């Protein structure tokens, strides 16, 4: 085989490097970067052919080739080599794989930031050896390609990390929705238990005395009807929550009427023979704007908690009055009171002093209602001195004339 002169390139090294940099700026794909390097090696370094091997694990795989005869994959299948062979030995093994016994090969590793990304193999099929200037330009091209590969790998890592973060965020959102739904379901179940318990008392009364006077029967049935309406409204809150709908619209309501309704329901939690009692002190407060079933459920929560606190013997007092341009509702009990630690945590979700019997959501939902209604809630309690919850709501604005 006769020697042939190296390929002649009319561009200066600076022009070659600038042009190559522009090409690299058009892609972040490692295969394309390696292909551009193989093509540039043939076009500008006087090589008859060039191959680029990419490092993958413990092996180096030929992923790009240019020039003759190495660019013909049908005639020369892409070989793989162990990483330990990278160096002069790799060039000789590639020449053997490409059936070029008289050729000469030079290997230039692609290294950036301490990471080895691959190897450029320059092949001269006729035995021509590259000049030092050509190898220096080749090293500069390799350095640019290695930097581009490093950037591409970092970008791929960021994309994978972002995809994992998105997947984790989706899981977190689903988990948070399920947690919120669980809290809402538990809270609604808690409210339903408080609201529907008086039905047991009413049904028991009817069973014990089926021949009750008509007036008494009408009164009991009316009470049961009100309880069922509040129960259905509470269930509807869960339906609206499940569909991510807006909250039920607030209404201008009579505080004393809703307090009487809540007291009636809470009385159903006083067992026969207990000395506990609930008294009301009405002060004709102004109308306030809230969702009625939510306020009733909140008051029943406070009253049932107060009944538990007094332990079947004592008094719970509900006071209503006008105050500071709104209405106040006070629920006070003669129970054992609370420590400072309990007072600080009493409105936190899932905090309870009732052990397994409590959900820790009752007072949290009372607090949430007051906040949604632009009101205020305050707790006064000391050990041995009972507890007083004060709820304040702004007065409902009068209708426009």
User: In whole angstroms, how far apart are the ends?
Assistant: 108 Å
Shape designation = rod-shaped
What's the helical proportion of residues?
A: 40-55%
Radius of gyration: 41 Å
Strand content: 15-25%
Order of secondary-structure elements: HHEEEHEEHHEHEEHEEHHEE
**Beta strands, count:** 12
Largest sheet descriptor:
5 strands, antiparallel
How confident is the prediction overall: mean pLDDT?
A: 79
Question: From the helix content, strand content and strand pairing, which structural class follows?
Answer: alpha+beta
Strand order of the largest sheet: 3-2-1-5-4
Count of alpha/pi helices: 9
Unreliable runs: 1-8, 73-77, 240-247
Q: How would you describe the overall organization of this protein?
A:
By secondary structure, this protein is of the alpha+beta class. It is 48% helix and 21% strand. The chain has helices at residues 13-24, 30-44, 88-97, 132-208, 214-242, 255-267, 292-310, 340-345, 362-372, and strands at 49-56, 59-67, 80-82, 104-112, 115-124, 251-253, 275-281, 288-290, 313-323, 326-333, 376-381, 387-394. The strands form 3 sheets. The protein has a 5-stranded antiparallel beta sheet. Strands 7-9-10-12-11 form a 5-stranded mixed beta sheet. Strands 6-8 form a two-stranded antiparallel sheet. Helix 2 runs antiparallel to helix 4 (132-208) and helix 4 (132-208) runs antiparallel to helix 5. The protein is rod-shaped, with a radius of gyration of 41 Å.
